[in-house]
Amino acid sequence: MPAGGRQQAGAGPARPALRAALDPKEVNSATGRPIFARREDCQLRSGPRGRSPNSPGMTPSYSGSWCSPSSMYARVVGRASRRKHEKRQIQLQRPEIERALEEHLGFLFRSALSYDEGYEDEAKRLAVSLRAILHNTAQSHSLLAQLDLGSKLFTDTAAHIDPRNLGNTPGLVIMEMIVGVGVTYVAPLGMLSPSRIHPPAPFQAWWDSPVMKIGEHLWSRKQLVLALANKDGGAHVDPSLDEDYYALSRRNLLGVTYVDASGAQEAQGNPAAAAVRQIAYEVLGTFEREQPNTMPKNAKA
Q1: How far apart are CA 67 and CA 72, in angstroms?
Q2: Are the CB atoms for 229 and 130 separated by under 8 Å?
Q3: How far is it, in rounded angstroms, from Cα 53 to Cα 18?
Q4: The model's pTM
């Protein structure tokens, strides 16, 4: 140790970690100390009196503690330590991903049964599993994409939007009179009118195309699923909601009314939740037809 009791940067047991963390051009091969091959490799955090070195009228200086070998040594050793503690990622094999798909199809089936028994909030759990199966982004890898099943044709039960129709189009849901409750938004499941029986559709068009029209606002299956899953209690509860979605799910935005002995009444229930239940019906029907080996036992759409 040199006079003064301070160990030289780059000396001692930490030297191997330093050498591993830095590029060869940044290490003096004779001493093991960090050096800079280019001035731009050395970054200044601030100028005199806290002013940025890039402030008008200032000339950047490349000296100071930020550029000192000892400071650089601490930074690179810290970087080496972080690398040492990073966890290695294990790639899942196809059978494991197939089991995950089967699990989520099972979740859909069981939550759908609960929804049909009157537990409307199960739509939020339906939305979470639908997102896991269908929604693919750079950060969120859908099971459909991981298993290369995007070419499958999806069951389509929506009432298609007619651009000539100036009124609202509920799309995936219908209204039903329930004794003791009144007119309620429900998922029709397989009880479809002839106008709602369509050939299976390619996935991307099925997922992204509008299926519900309210005024000027159009809703796709993707928007309905992600609203429930990401914002409205499926996997996360946002402190605020999009005003159109709020009105759709809580304020009878579709505008359906009826008259009973007490006078005019608004339709009951959440059409967004009913739409997600119908989407779950379509997805279960799709996999039952296209990929029956992934369906859990006793699970039917």
Answers
A1: 7
A2: yes
A3: 29
A4: 0.70
